[in-house]
Write a structure and sequence with these properties.
16 helices, 2-enoyl-CoA Hydratase, Chain A, domain 1
Length: about 375
């Protein structure tokens, strides 16, 4: 069964590899050991001609399903960042390589995105060929709330959402459900949560000659997506198409709608510096390959933890306020969007490595 950790459970039935994330007390947040085991499994199954597909799910305290993955283990990231632990660097390098592998896996990769799917959970599902959501799906890239940016390929997959939804989701960290996830091209199909076990068991007990047979089986089980609530897509495009962060926020604050007011209030709580960085990230990534985006994000995350000139890490401060001290009053530097230094924003995109020595130099496409 497991190679490195009990937090990842794996087995093969017939011609399908099955993975269950089994760290329910942490909402299946990814540790370095979990990333390494997932990478090892997927590399072996990618090369194994007897394996035609992979299915992945998360468990909750009551059993299978209910929570997919809440992201990376931010408590570990905070402790490692404060201590200068080199495993912090390993975590991001190996996690991003795992994200790339999933996008380029070459076989059906079926992600049962039930419950919480955030941050790193998006990283291990967005590259899948069949991303299944349920009425319990709570999807988000909420990194700006902790002074980070939507990594794990977030620049790539958010920038490919319709219109300027990518900017909206990246800057606000707004949580969405199944219908919006499908409309925004972040999921492929809908399944009631009560039917997941039967579909999973059907994959376990079924006989599948090839990858297409697996895909056809899953497709036959999906049902129509529930109707969306009144969507704010037009307002999203109106505001988040603007050229810079002050223009977006000032336009929202000048508008009268409930959406505009709530969105402006949310953005004012985020790290001003990281709002600028994230807007630039999404717009750069729209023209990049996944590999180039992941290399850019690897550069950015090094700056977030280590390379700021005044040594004040927005990310360490954001995690402290949210998850360590839990005072929910991060002391952002600078405190206001009007005070952000554009030179510092630009520096966040300067690679610390020459191209040949980049830790993700080997990624293609």
């Amino acid at each position: 069964m497991s190679i490195y950790t009990e937090d990842v459970q794996s087995e093969v039935h017939g011609r399908i590899g099955f993975i269950t994330l089994n760290r329910p007390k942490a909402l299946n947040a990814l540790s370095l050991a979990m990333v390494r085991e997932l990478m090892d499994l997927l590399l072996r199954w990618q090369k194994d001609e007897n394996i035609v597909a992979v299915a992945i799910r998360g468990s909750n305290k009551d059993g299978a399903f209910g929570a997919f993955c809440a992201g990376g283990d931010i408590r570990f990231l905070h402790a490692a960042g404060m201590a200068g632990n080199p495993e912090l660097e390993d975590f991001f390098t190996e996690e991003y390589a795992l994200n790339h592998l999933i996008h380029h896996f070459g076989k059906p990769y079926i992600a049962f995105m039930d419950g919480i799917v955030m941050g790193g959970g998006m990283g291990i599902s967005q590259g899948g060929t069949m991303r299944i959501v349920t009425e319990r799906t709570k999807m988000a890239m909420p990194e700006t709330a902790i002074g980070l940016f939507p990594d794990v390929g977030g620049g790539y997959f958010l920038s490919r959402c319709p219109g300027h939804v990518g900017e909206y989701l990246a800057l606000t960290g707004q949580m969405i459900g199944a219908a919006d996830a499908i409309a925004y091209k972040l999921a492929d199909g809908y399944l009631p949560s009560s039917e997941q076990a039967a579909v999973w068991d059907g994959l376990v007990t079924g006989s599948f000659a090839n990858a297409k047979a697996v895909e056809d089986f899953i497709a036959s089980k999906l049902i129509a997506t529930p109707a969306r609530q009144a969507a704010a897509d037009a307002e999203i495009d109106q505001y988040f198409s603007k050229g810079d962060v002050p223009s977006i926020i000032h336009a929202l604050e000048a508008a009268g709608s409930d959406f505009a007011k709530a969105t402006a209030e949310t953005l004012r709580k985020r790290s001003p510096l990281m709002l600028y960085v994230v807007l630039e990230q999404i717009r750069r990534a729209r023209q990049q390959t996944l590999a180039d985006d992941l290399r850019m994000e690897r550069d950015m995350v090094r700056h977030c933890f280590y390379l700021r000139a005044d040594r004040k890490s927005e990310t360490l401060e954001g995690i402290r306020a949210l998850a360590v001290d839990k005072d929910h009053t991060p002391r952002w530097s600078p405190a206001q969007i009007e005070e952000v230094d554009l030179g510092e924003v630009a520096q966040m995109f300067a690679s610390p490595w020459p191209a040949h020595a980049h830790p993700l130099a080997h990624l293609k496409g």
